[in-house]
Amino acid sequence: MMKKTLIIVLTLLLIVGFARVLLTVPAVQDRVLERGTAIMAKRGAQPLAESESLRVYVCGSASPLGQGQAQACIAVITPEHFFLIDSGAGSTDNINRLGLPTEKLQGLLLTHFHSDHIAEIYEVNLGSWVRGRPQPLTIYGPQGVAELTDGINATYRQDRNYRSTHHGPYLLPPALGVLAHETIEPGIVLEDGDLKVTAYIAEHPPIHPAVGYRFDYRGRSVVISGDSNVTEETLKIADGADLLLHDALSVPTLNALMAALSAEGQTRQAKIVADVMDYHASAASLVEFSETSNVDMVAFYHLVPVPPTSLLEDVFLRGAPDNVILTEDLMWFELPIDSEEIIIHRP
Ligand SMILES: [Zn+2]
Ligand SMILES: [Zn+2]
């Protein structure tokens, strides 16, 4: 028996060794390259599966306190619509991995202008321009969005020129690389067919105005908070909503972190962690909200901090009922029409 096992192990090692040697041969490498690129191109050409549902994708679940996950980004897609809410660092990579059809992107809605929500605006613009978006990308946001958009347009003017000149203006029309903007007020931001988008005031001092958004589509609805505490406005906007995606902060984790930093004499870092505490919703306040409101599901995103282990996930969700969950990058929610169901797709 021992001898038989030894022979199997030695044979396997021989095969692995032989394969390694084979992969150093240029002709074999070329064949592998051909197969690999063919699979990649096929995958890239595949449209997003057709669905009647309202679909919500997590293209960024992290806050600035988090590693290995992209910063704030949510995509809302219906059969006729595609909007992004914020685009923090790392989010375009996730948008591509999810295979979202950015040539159909109709707008990027900003909740406020902290860097973890705006870092990849130009990457989103560039990616959708390259994929053939037929109109300029509009950036929606509260007061200040004009300054932000003008600044990005000026910063990347040379980049746009290089790319248009290099690939030709027929492939990359210069006018479609320039961002448009629209300053929004709380209330209905846009109505397009069966979709209605409403903005509400978020509490994220000293940032004012900061907003969150509610999407209503054929009887299904999702609210996306951006950065905010739970307030009366949250209760009003989320009334009867199916899904609330809310920024969330774990007080026990941050308290432990603060104590550890102070003990090590890292006073600057400890002060920054202390400052963060009062302008994001605590997990406990959201658990309470889930019990007092009539929202069907509360999903935490913009996690402060991203829990790196299952133990810290449990700490984050202390006392949470089943309809309160943590999100992660590439997770998505499907809300079928004429149904109460929320289907969660995990990566
Ligand atoms: Zn913020
Ligand atoms: Zn933030």
**What is the CATH top level name of the largest domain?**
Alpha Beta
* Overall shape: globular
Low-pLDDT sequence parts: none
Number of strands: 15
What's the number of helices? Answer: 12
What is the CA-based Rg, rounded?
23 Å
Q: Structural class of the secondary elements?
A: alpha/beta
Number of domains: 2
Kindly identify the CATH topology of the largest domain. Metallo-beta-lactamase, Chain A
Averaged pLDDT, please? 95
**The biggest beta sheet, please?**
8 strands, mixed
Strand fraction equals: 15-25%
The secondary-structure element order is HHEEEHEHHEHHEEEEEHEHHHEHEEE
Reading side by side through the largest sheet, how are the strands ordered?
6-5-4-3-2-1-14-15
Distance between the termini: 41 Å
Spell out which ligands are present: zinc ion
CATH homologous superfamily of the largest domain - what is it?
Ribonuclease Z/Hydroxyacylglutathione hydrolase-like
> What is the CATH architecture assignment of the largest domain?
4-Layer Sandwich
Question: Helical proportion?
Answer: 25-40%
